[in-house]
Amino acid sequence: MSDPFFFGYGSLVNRRTHAYPEAHPARVTGWRRAWRRSPRTNRCLLSAVPAPDDYIDGLIASVPGADWAALDAREGAYARHDASRTVTHPVGRNLDIAIYAVDLDAFPVPGDDHPVLLSYLDVVVQGFHAEFGQAGVDHFFDTTEGWHAPVLDDRSAPVYPRHQQLVEEETALVDAGLARIGARIIGL
């Protein structure tokens, strides 16, 4: 029996944030990315939300020995959902694939007092750039819901626990994407 996989669509697209061995670019249909308000942190988190006519590009990676404990702890706010039949991938066999998503009733649409962390966004965009290039970065910004929420500039003192060092080109990609969608940046 082969190992199961997860489908990552946010920070899990960035291979620097995890050490899962077998990873491949992939696409899931029937979902869309959206910023949702976390009642625990008063900040936004990125979730997949059901959307029958949409898709998300991301990364699948194997979970050796079906040992979900570490990943479930990392994704503690989310529930695992079966996405096996909705993921297109380059692996030449059928896979068991899970996607993490929050309960939409418990994690509502964010307001002005629930910002997106820039240090988190940096990690996500760095991953999309590495996997999908400029087109992937543009698609991330264009197809994610909830950009009305402000973006908290915490780059000088990153709050996101898996923040990464970005090179100048990567920082410019994030900043240009935010400017293009008209995001509102606020300070710490």
Describe the model.
By secondary structure, this protein is α/β, with parallel strands linked by helices. Strand 7 (116-117), helix 2 (118-143) and strand 8 form a beta-alpha-beta unit. The chain has helices spanning 69-74, 118-143, 168-181; strands at residues 5-8, 23-37, 44-62, 79-82, 87-88, 97-101, 116-117, 151-153, 185-187. Helix 2 packs across helix 3. The mean pLDDT is 94. The chain has a single domain, classed as Hypothetical upf0131 protein ytfp (Roll). The strands form 2 sheets. Strands 4-6-1-3-2-5 form a 6-stranded mixed β-sheet, covered by helices on one side. It has a 3-stranded parallel β-sheet with strand order 7-8-9. 24% of the residues lie in helices and 30% in strands.
Topology:
Elements: E1 5-8, E2 23-37, E3 44-62, H1 69-74, E4 79-82, E5 87-88, E6 97-101, E7 116-117, H2 118-143, E8 151-153, H3 168-181, E9 185-187
Helix pairs in contact: 2-3
Number of helical regions: 3
Percent of residues in beta strands?
25-35%
Unreliable residue runs: none
Radius of gyration, CA atoms, in whole angstroms:
16 Å
List keywords for this structure.
188 residues; alpha/beta; Hypothetical upf0131 protein ytfp; six-stranded mixed beta sheet; 3 helices; 9 strands; globular
Write a brief structural summary.
The protein has 188 residues and is an alpha/beta fold.
